Amino acid sequence: MPTRSSGAARAGLRWTRRGRLAARVALVAAGCVAGCLLGELAIRLVLGEQPKFARHVVRAPWGIRYNDPSSRYRHRSADVDVEFMINRQGMRCDHDVEHAKPAGRRRIVSLGDSFTIGYEVAATETFSSVLEARLRAAGLDVEVLNCGVSGFSNAEECLYLERELLKYSPDLVLVSFFENDLDDNPRSGLFRIDGDELVVAAQEYIPGGELADWLNRSSVFNFLSERSDAFVFVKESLTDLLKHQPMARVPPKGPSDFDAAPAAGAGKDAIVAPPATPKIPPEDRPKRKLCARIFDRIYAVAQAHGIPFVIMSIPGESPAEHTIAECFPLEEFDVHRPGLEFVSTYDLLQPWNGKELLYWRRSHHHWTPFAHRLAGEELARRILDKKLLP
User: Fold this and answer.
1) Domain presence at residue 20
2) Which residues contact 180 (CB under 8 A, 6 or more apart)?
3) pTM of whole model > 0.70?
4) Residue 270 placed within a domain
5) Angle at 298 between CA 260 and CA 332, to 5 degrees
6) Range of the domain at 354
7) I need a surface site. Which of 65, 98, 105, 328 has the fewest CB within 10 A?
8) Could you report the per-residue pLDDT of 111-161, keeping only the tens digit for each?
9) Are the C-beta atoms of residues 42 and 92 closer than 8 Å to each other?
């Protein structure tokens, strides 16, 4: 028959084992924490502060992506520290916007990628906000809805407009183009070219599927994305490996690569006419044609609803050489059409290149507030001069 002392001994032994297990778990946890801290220190010392740009881009009810509604977060880098406020409609805005438009108000929807939503600048510094402020100063009751989404392609912008943004009764549609759209459009798989025609190839596109959508909604994932240099370094490295490896491209280096010049006596609004055989690498022509056909579709949608359409082309930049380049597929897309205004910011920014900081240097090379201001002011001038918002 067991004695009380032997039972106490066994109980003591169990507590001893639990204590050893707890000590081991604590030791492993302490090792993990120490390893993470060392990793943070190593990344910061060797590579410097990493741009911590949490994306908060999630699945939208209409089958593509949009900004996580009602989210609040910050972007930090060696260059900037800015706050993002996303309204319930998924726009970068500090208030909600109803589908119904107030009487007498004009409304512009501004579509694009991270340049449009305003990575690396405050909300009031984006070209969309500058455009709104300049139009209001001219006496117009107007609001510009910033519908930019990081990583967006022109294909997604087209479907976003068709499936959701037309419900806001826009009086003008502004779509921004950036050089990575040429790769992002075919990557989305939403459209393809059949002969010379654009055909729908898929109804939905969520990069990374359910896992990526869950991660972008995860408070832990987003906490680390906003605060951990080591986590961001690993995340961005994996993203670049998965996203950019299959897509190698040599973009045109500016208007001179089209072997054309403005017509004699042409003003500052003149558009460089593309020649019959532009200097485009053969492997780039299919993606440039796809991009142009997508813009054809957006133009057709705008025309069907009697809405002026403005395209703003954002030049690509070579961070090493500090040169900028116009990459819009001018050889495939006719910019001389009724109800269409094409704004190449290459001509706008080139005189300032090397004199003012146009793209941030220590982060993701998006526009600085100076470049945003130039673009917003030019858009306002074009819209007013051409009476696109009568």
Assistant:
1) no
2) 113
3) yes
4) no
5) 25
6) 50-257+276-385
7) 98
8) 999 999 999 999 999 999 999 999 999 999 999 999 999 999 999 999 999
9) no
